[in-house]
Amino acid sequence: MVFYLFFLTPLFNFVTIWYYKHKNGKKINKKEYFTMIDIKQKVADILSEKIEGLSTEEIYELLEYPPNPDMGDVALPCFKLSRIFRKSPVQIAEDLMNNIQLPDSIEKAEAVSGYLNFFLNKSIFIREVLETIINKGDKYGSRDIGKGKNIVIDYSSPNIAKPFHIGHLRSTVIGNSLYKIFEFMGYNCIGINYLGDWGTQFGKLIVAYKKWGSKEAVENGQIKELMSLYVKFHKEAEENPALEDEARAWFVKMEKGDEEALSLWRWFKDISLKEFNRVYEILGITFDSYAGESFYEDKMQPVIEELKEKGLLKESEGAQIVDLEEYDMPPCMILKKDGSTLYATRDITAAIYRKKTYDFEKCIYVTGVSQSLHFKQWFKVIELMGYDWADQLIHVPFGTVSLGGEKMATREGKVVLLEDILNKAIEKTRAIIEEKSPHLENKDEIARQMGVGAVVFSDLYSNRIKDVSFSWDEILNFDGETGPYVQYTHARACSVLRKADEEVSLDFDSSILSSKEEYQLAKTLYLFPEKVYTAMEELEPSIITRYLVDLAQDFNRFYHEHSILVEDQALRNARLALVQATKITLANGLRLIGLSAPEQV
RNA sequence: GCGUCUGUAGCUCAGUGGAUAGAGUGUUCGACUCCGACUCGAAAGGCCGUGGGUUCGAAUCCCGCCAGACGCACCA
């Protein structure tokens, strides 16, 4: 699927351009054409006339961006062509250079040791890029490839009765970013917070509460009291394993509808939700559905029947399993020997329900990498049930968060609460604002946006599969490649535009923007749609995070080297357009990773 | 033991089979009468874990080994 989408990109552009060119037999609409600029496409079109035996799409795939600006803007490595044409790559590059006819938009082509390097006409390129961005505004980088298609994203999904700690942040922010990215690509997204509100851990909590807790203590201590009961349970259970059986028995009672068990469960759930919602509010994250595990309690029986009917269920050591030995996997357990259900039972049920309800094109699960096998197993069960949409289920794993080298474990009480981190980050930002911009309006809101931004950005900074070691110093560091740096850069661009106090006009002379900083900035701006697309394809928000740092750096270099609000009106107009385009792109990118883009900080 | 993932500058990390492997941070040295210095520039810093293989070409693909993380039936 990934390969398929990748292959489609150039085709999509090609077809779209063709469509615009031929629409109603009229000349193409300039504005529409500019929204589709694709410099590789331009080069591929030129080359395809001279290279026989390769389609435009194949040539497109060969093209790359040179590592160094001195080598041009787009390059064709001729080594692979060498075999087809039985000529040396050097020769091919030179022959092509001498034969191709360059349009105005390409200044020159140079053959250099087996590469054919194309140099764009800078002025035309900058004009096209800036016009595109300013015309499209907050749609710059968006597509409509997902039009009419649904994508379910299952993320955050904290366990009730456990505190929301730094480990939960990753699922929340990665999922939230994927939601925004797919939405930007035209998909209709359904964000589901699959709350862990069912299962044996409630049995444990009930046992602990009845033995060592009290109504008063829970009402006063809220989730912290629940957590300490949970921790105490595991401590005691080490000495007295019979407690585990008691806990399982209480869960069986829950599944059988025992009123005492259920009312305690509801109470614990309410307490937890209050806490979670407070954190989501600080983060500024919402969900379309909070259908947690308990939602599927009355829907599992038919699925178990279905597994039985399809001959997949097998008894083993008293439990009901689906044997996956044939696929080199341990069995997928469906029912425990006491007849109660498990995680996999609910996941399978939920997937079937979601397919029926949302008719998704993809259903994405954002969870820790430690659950990889679990997903592999039950995805296989769905396939064995004969559902051809099994390949639409996608597990998006992320690395483990550790605490000073040790794994965080709620059971042992070793956690850093997310709310504490967010509040500290906000506090720190607030202090900086107080010092640097004491006259700022709504300081509290800006402090929240930037403090949260710092934490979220740092979580989305590396490839999601990497393990992270939590450190207060790192998460509260606002220097270098951080959220505040990018947000600050955006605010700075806004500030210049405010000072200019004039409409940014599209009527500017792009040939004035001739410095290397200006050209480099335009090139980076150009890359944004491609980066967003890759981030979607690879389900990897860090691609956008990285890009934003590059863009902010390029802008700051430009800003440092050149004055924008100069007397020369033509130069001023052109540079303001560049600033406006940067502002738009930074804001769009920040939005896609779930950060605010305040205009003043 | 088996399986999955990770290993790149002192540290944290980027890096589509292609040209001289890049940022940030830390260290050293610089730049503010100037649009917001939470900024910018320069220097130093690399057997890309290791040994083979494939290829015109490998940090990138394949195999072995080493190190670490995470899994491997009644938790989620």
Question: What does the model show?
Answer:
This protein is an alpha/beta fold. It has 22 helices and 13 strands. α20 runs parallel beside α22. The two termini are 42 Å apart. Strands 5-4-9-10 form a 4-stranded parallel β-sheet, with helices on both faces. It has a 3-stranded antiparallel β-sheet with strand order 1-3-2. 56% of the residues lie in helices and 10% in strands. The structure holds one RNA strand of 76 nucleotides.
List the helices and strands and how they pair.
Elements: H1 2-22, H2 30-34, H3 39-48, H4 56-62, E1 74-77, H5 79-85, H6 89-99, E2 106-112, E3 115-120, H7 122-136, E4 150-154, H8 166-184, E5 188-192, H9 200-212, H10 215-239, H11 242-255, H12 259-283, H13 300-309, E6 313-316, E7 319-322, E8 332-335, H14 343-358, E9 362-368, H15 372-384, E10 393-398, E11 401-403, E12 406-407, H16 418-436, H17 443-459, E13 468-470, H18 472-475, H19 483-500, H20 516-537, H21 542-561, H22 569-592
Parallel strand pairs: 4-5, 4-9, 9-10, 11-13
Antiparallel strand pairs: 1-3, 2-3, 6-7, 7-8, 11-12
The chain binds one RNA strand of 76 nucleotides through helix 5, helix 9, strand 8, helix 15 and helix 19.
